[in-house]
Amino acid sequence: MREACGVFGIYSFKDDSPFRDVYYGLFALQHRGQESAGIAVSNLEDVKVQKGMGLVNQVFNEQSINQLHGKIAIGHVRYSTTGSSNIENAQPILINSKYGPVALAHNGNLINTEDLRCELKERGLSFIGTSDSELIAALISTSDKSDIESAIIDMLNKIKGAYSLVILTKDSLIALRDPNGIRPLSIGKTENAYVFSSETCGFDIIGAHFIRDINNGELVIIKDNEMRSRIFSNDSREALCIFEFIYFARPDSIIHGRSLYESRVNMGKYLAKEHPVRADLVIPVPESGIPAAIGYADESGIPYGEGLIKNRYVGRTFIEPNQEMRSLGVRIKLNPIQDAVRGKKVIVVDDSIVRGTTSRQIVKLLKEAGASEVHMRVSSPKILNPCYYGIDTATRAELIAANLSLEGIAKYLDVDSLGYLSLNNLVKAVALPEKRFCLACFNDDYPVKVPEKMQSLKLFFK
């Protein structure tokens, strides 16, 4: 499952350049996007952008730091959800408008991109890339409003879907979340700067302290060293993506006042209560399954241990283009510890199962290493529906839980038993009201109505 992108922004009160802090902030958010990275910097007169394909430390170097000076900066790490993976779709996107240079970085996914693209093309606009973020920039640049803030509000009245945005002008930094707050975005502060980050772990790396989450439907503007806020929409229910708690966000981050690590440990504890089994060892699928496995072991009294070693120098297996390469990717990425699992009944804890191909390979690896039994436990409910808001899940035809019974999934995975965390206990583990989350991938309750044309693609296209 591909995760959402990561955005970061800094407004410095001093004349020193915040480029290096944005660079470090993107390092902290690297787990949210590994296809491309970019930084835009304003010196109050001009805006410059540097971006490229690859990881943060592949795109930037000391020469970059020496070239990009300014008082305000934004950064972005990307996974493609709308738009292919190429340099044309890397962000931040920079436009020259009647309001001056504007750069923006987007986390999320719009659901009315096709209509917007047709409308803008009819008005004579052409596009360099294929991302929905470029459409957002185009809507700002073509607004008939007299100032940039009004132009942004004008744009917000036209787009639909999930979006957390950081927008840089030559003299201001603006951050906002969509009316449902589907993607996270927080405000922090250092002694000399205001900071925006997709996750609070981005604050920790530069020594910023967390102030608060940006509210759904809120626009935050920093200009002339002062911060102010306005609500542009307050008639939609909050619907933060629950997968931020299950998998996407780093376990050392805090969202809505809740520790991601504690929530995931709780998921494992509830999972042990729901699906107990006699076994010798509890092991996680590293890294994302570790907290839940710790919780499962603690609640069940079964020892926790390492059974799979992760090669930390390879990319995530889901970026491979076909099943054959995906299977090979699992073997490159994970290797069983034979002495740890040989002859033992093993409980494997993972955060989710999407297609099932990776889980099937993991079970095969453990059995080849000598495990006598393999019991799979999943710290989230069955994924039955695709996402349209910025997570690149499979189509419904590819979602294993949407097409097979529990017994059928267990047979396909070749496990001795299989158990998923219930939706009720997932919400209990997070310890926040259910109404605050988007749970559509589990219960088909989409907070923003999805066009039928878009649903058809996710239903049948493979």
UniProtKB/TrEMBL annotation:
<dbReference type="InterPro" id="IPR029057">
    <property type="entry name" value="PRTase-like"/>
</dbReference>
<feature type="domain" description="Glutamine amidotransferase type-2">
    <location>
        <begin position="5"/>
        <end position="225"/>
    </location>
</feature>
<protein>
    <recommendedName>
        <fullName>Amidophosphoribosyltransferase</fullName>
        <ecNumber>2.4.2.14</ecNumber>
    </recommendedName>
</protein>
<feature type="binding site">
    <location>
        <position position="387"/>
    </location>
    <ligand>
        <name>[4Fe-4S] cluster</name>
    </ligand>
</feature>
<keyword id="KW-0411">Iron-sulfur</keyword>
<keyword id="KW-0328">Glycosyltransferase</keyword>
<dbReference type="Pfam" id="PF13522">
    <property type="entry name" value="GATase_6"/>
</dbReference>
<dbReference type="GO" id="GO:0051539">
    <property type="term" value="F:4 iron, 4 sulfur cluster binding"/>
</dbReference>
<feature type="binding site">
    <location>
        <position position="441"/>
    </location>
    <ligand>
        <name>[4Fe-4S] cluster</name>
    </ligand>
</feature>
<dbReference type="InterPro" id="IPR017932">
    <property type="entry name" value="GATase_2_dom"/>
</dbReference>
<dbReference type="InterPro" id="IPR029055">
    <property type="entry name" value="Ntn_hydrolases_N"/>
</dbReference>
<comment type="pathway">
    <text>Purine metabolism; IMP biosynthesis via de novo pathway; N(1)-(5-phospho-D-ribosyl)glycinamide from 5-phospho-alpha-D-ribose 1-diphosphate: step 1/2.</text>
</comment>
<dbReference type="Pfam" id="PF00156">
    <property type="entry name" value="Pribosyltran"/>
</dbReference>
<keyword id="KW-0315">Glutamine amidotransferase</keyword>
<keyword id="KW-0808">Transferase</keyword>
<dbReference type="GO" id="GO:0006189">
    <property type="term" value="P:'de novo' IMP biosynthetic process"/>
</dbReference>
<keyword id="KW-0658">Purine biosynthesis</keyword>
<feature type="binding site">
    <location>
        <position position="288"/>
    </location>
    <ligand>
        <name>Mg(2+)</name>
    </ligand>
</feature>
<keyword id="KW-0479">Metal-binding</keyword>
<comment type="function">
    <text>Catalyzes the formation of phosphoribosylamine from phosphoribosylpyrophosphate (PRPP) and glutamine.</text>
</comment>
<feature type="binding site">
    <location>
        <position position="351"/>
    </location>
    <ligand>
        <name>Mg(2+)</name>
    </ligand>
</feature>
<comment type="similarity">
    <text>In the C-terminal section; belongs to the purine/pyrimidine phosphoribosyltransferase family.</text>
</comment>
<feature type="binding site">
    <location>
        <position position="438"/>
    </location>
    <ligand>
        <name>[4Fe-4S] cluster</name>
    </ligand>
</feature>
<keyword id="KW-0004">4Fe-4S</keyword>
<keyword id="KW-0408">Iron</keyword>
<dbReference type="InterPro" id="IPR000836">
    <property type="entry name" value="PRTase_dom"/>
</dbReference>
<keyword id="KW-0460">Magnesium</keyword>
<dbReference type="GO" id="GO:0009113">
    <property type="term" value="P:purine nucleobase biosynthetic process"/>
</dbReference>
<dbReference type="InterPro" id="IPR035584">
    <property type="entry name" value="PurF_N"/>
</dbReference>
<feature type="binding site">
    <location>
        <position position="350"/>
    </location>
    <ligand>
        <name>Mg(2+)</name>
    </ligand>
</feature>
<dbReference type="GO" id="GO:0000287">
    <property type="term" value="F:magnesium ion binding"/>
</dbReference>
<dbReference type="GO" id="GO:0004044">
    <property type="term" value="F:amidophosphoribosyltransferase activity"/>
</dbReference>
<feature type="active site" description="Nucleophile">
    <location>
        <position position="5"/>
    </location>
</feature>
<dbReference type="InterPro" id="IPR005854">
    <property type="entry name" value="PurF"/>
</dbReference>
<feature type="binding site">
    <location>
        <position position="241"/>
    </location>
    <ligand>
        <name>[4Fe-4S] cluster</name>
    </ligand>
</feature>
